[in-house]
Write a structure and sequence with these properties.
By secondary structure, the protein is an alpha/beta fold. The protein has helices spanning 2-17, 36-51, 66-78, 91-99; strands at residues 22-26, 57-61, 84-88. β2 (57-61), α3 and β3 (84-88) form a beta-alpha-beta unit.
Length: 102
């Protein structure tokens, strides 16, 4: 899980450094080998860290794992995530949504 935490920290640092406004994260092939509780805690921290940036829209390509998707939804609620966010089943739809003006 340390690798995942570090990857999320790098994403947040990059979003801050380059003043990223729109971001797509493709989680479709990611493998998580940890408890649901720890996974959700890491996601909540990531969400809160992203809210400390100027990010406006986050598109996420989800997985077929309903438990993981439930964790993502719960983490979003726990973090009171205020950035425009949507899950997608494919990257093309995610990018199209990001490029759509709002």
């Amino acid at each position: 899980m340390a690798d995942v935490k570090e990857a999320f920290n790098i994403i947040v640092d990059t979003v801050k450094h380059y003043d990223v406004k729109r971001l797509v994260i493709d989680s479709s092939k990611a493998v998580i080998d940890t408890s649901d509780k720890e996974h959700r805690e890491v996601l909540v921290k990531f969400a809160r860290d992203l809210m400390g940036t100027r990010l406006q829209k986050l598109a996420r390509v989800g997985t077929q794992d309903t438990l993981r998707e439930t964790n993502v939804s719960k983490a979003k609620e726990d973090a009171a995530f205020s950035i425009a966010f949507q899950n997608f089943s494919d990257k093309a739809a995610a990018v199209a949504w990001l490029n759509k003006s709002s």
